[in-house]
Amino acid sequence: MKTLLDAKRTAQQFGFSSLITEPTANAKLMKSKGWYNAGISLAQAKLSGHNMCRASTVQCRRACLGNTGRAEFTPPIIQSRINRTKLFATNPSLFWEILEPELYKVDRKAKKLGLPVAFRPNILSDMDWWRIFPQIFEQFAHWQFYGYTKVRAVVRASIAGKLPANYHVTFSWSENTKLDYVADCLDNGINVAVPFYNKETYKKHIPMRWNGWNVVNGDESDLRFNDPKGVIVGLGVKLPKNLVKARKMIEDSKGFFVGV
User: Fold this and answer.
1) What pTM was computed for the model?
2) Which of 114, 147, 171, 209 has the most CB atoms less than 10 A away?
3) Positive or negative, the Cα torsion across 209, 210, 216, 221?
4) How confident is the model at residue 66 (pLDDT cuts 50, 70, 90)?
């Protein structure tokens, strides 16, 4: 295994300083109280020239969190994600050589703080980490891994118990998702994340119930594995204050944003 210093030097040669997104570097991760919550931020969809979200839709890509936050105004952040992704796609062995010592660093920091580790390998991507790097789930069996996915094969694998025991997935709603499929997921213990807004005020709003299902507020924490099974995970849609722009954004989503 590379030393942490060697890993950092190698990373810099490929145009990024680190593969790990620390808790303080991501607004969602920062909300995870009681856990050391870290992850990996690859470039979403085909932004890098390699498809990291094979089940994404046009509306999903438009609304992706990868286009918001600090990255929206800081091109180097996006470029670092692209550089990481290119290495991930073209040289996974070297990617792992950089990643492994960084993972152990996370483990040491969490132990020093007396916190368990929650790890989200797909902060912006939707890749099969358990197939590409199965050793992560074995070497860090004491960690809780989690993520969102639009890939129905992943949902089926989770229901069938074919994913690592320490990996939790939540299905992500798309504009083409049918309610029958939502019901099937919930009946099988797979929660479904849905982005909501208030139809009257055009502000983000998370209902307590939707189509007869209980809704938990997914904006309060990113620790999806702590949610009760069989619920909708409500995510608030942040729309423009200008009503004309807000309506246009909703229309363009073609049902990806759900009004209540």
Assistant:
1) 0.92
2) 171
3) negative
4) low
